[in-house]
Amino acid sequence: MQTERLSADADGIRRAAALLTAGGIVAIPTETVYGLAADATNEAAILRVFAAKGRPQDNPLIVHIADLADLPRLAKEIPDTAYALAKRFWPGPLTLVLKRTDAVADCVSAGLDTVAVRMPSHPVAREIIRASVPLAAPSANTSGAPSPTEAGHVLHDLDGKIDAVVLGDRCTVGVESTVVSLAVTPPRLLRPGGISAEQLREVLPDLVLDQAILHQPEPHARVASPGMKYQHYAPQTKCFLVEGTGEQFIDYVNRKPACAALCFSEEASRLTVPHLDYGRGSSAEELAQNLFAALRRADDFGVAEIYIHAPQKTGVGLAVYNRLIRAAAFQVISL
Ligand code: TXA
Ligand code: MG
Fold first, then answer.
1. What percent of the chain is predicted at pLDDT more than 70?
2. Hey, what CATH class is 4-179 in?
3. Candidates 63, 95, 129: which one to mutate for ligand 1, based on the most atoms within 8 Å of Cβ?
4. Ligand 1 atom 21: the closest Cα is on which residue?
5. Distance 61 CA to ligand 1 centre (A)
6. Torsions phi, psi of 135, nearest 5?
7. How far, in Å, CA of 317 to CA of 284, rounded?
8. What is the pTM of this model?
9. 226 CA from centroid of ligand 1 (Å)
10. 238-334: what CATH class?
11. Which CA distances in Å does 125 have to 10, 230, 288, 326?
12. Which ligand gives the minimal distance to the CA of 34?
């Protein structure tokens, strides 16, 4: 299959919408990561998304809407807190898990009685949805690989497997949306992301954090968010997540033979091993923005082990930590 390259302008948006309405699968930019979109009511199109990514079919997809008026078609028994969160954080990097209606294709929800919904803020994503239909869209990467934050990442993974890609800019948030379930009491944070737990607590004071955010699920355990149980974001090279101060990290890594480091920019000049910095340690937003591109380059070092300096688990740093602990297969070194 030839994957069409579409520009992120009116012509490209029109073509993407036409392909999607006709059951095509198209990668589109959002503010978090690129998504691989399909009509959320078209079972055959959704199955093509799972196939192109090599995604296990028990892992449900997020449905993207452009207007709040689209929500009651997809979800029912919508609590007031959903509207309070929507008012505060939509459009933006927040996904709400709600009881679902029959309008959602079964395979979108992977057999669950809930649906995950988000309203992206990226203008191109919004215009494509407005010109087509509600779109189910997982991240536009091969399942297991780091999520794509540039159109080039999408093409690297999916060129020839999807109908088109809309060539937008680099994603501004850089990690996927925050996923919160309002289908349980108390509300539960399933995946940390662009909206922090601290921000959510302003609207949801009783929010609880799912165990799977920071801990490895037991084998065969039932997890609230199926995506949490899969190997994710992983370079081929063995990675370790290192907790400690800048001084401790530099000292530890410089003594290790045949390794490389994924570090903060403040540390780069003092490392004597090959390294790549993923932003200032003082800015969790910057680390989030650069994280996935850095993980995609990690294998280029050609070393046996990579030590990654862990961010603080506050603000969007919790999302960065959550992705890194998976990239490191839960191997954490505390200095
Ligand atoms: O920022 C994002 O959310 C991006 C962009 C493209 O919007 N999308 C994204 O999709 O990250 P994906 O498929 O890579 O991750 C969706 C996550 C998975 O962990 C999945 O298990 C969870 O959301 N999820 C989806 N539907 C769910 C449901 N009904 N209940 C619980 N978790 C759900
Ligand atoms: Mg994903």
1. 99
2. alpha beta
3. 95
4. 227
5. 5
6. -115, 125
7. 5
8. 0.97
9. 9
10. alpha beta
11. 12, 27, 20, 28
12. 1
Measured distance CA(163)–CA(35) in Å, rounded: 13
- Is there an atom of ligand 1 within 6 Å of 60 CB? yes
Give 124-173 pLDDT, tens digit per residue.
999 999 999 999 999 999 999 999 999 999 999 999 999 999 999 999 99
Question: In the chain, which segments carry CATH 3.40.50.11030?
Answer: 238-334
- Within 10 angstroms of residue 7's Cβ, the number of other Cβ atoms is 12
- Quote the Cα angle for 65-70-76, to 5°: 110
**Where do you find CATH 3.90.870.10 in the chain?**
4-179
- The answer to whether the CB of 172 is under 6 A from ligand 1 is no
Residue with the nearest Cα to atom 10 of ligand 1?
138
Cα–Cα dist 205/202, whole Å: 6
CB 333 within 8 A of CB 241: yes
Q: Which own/partner contact pairs does 212-220 have at CB distance under 8 Å and 24+ positions apart?
A: 213/189, 213/318, 213/322, 214/313, 214/321, 214/322, 214/325, 215/330, 216/330
Q: Which amino acid is at 6?
A: L
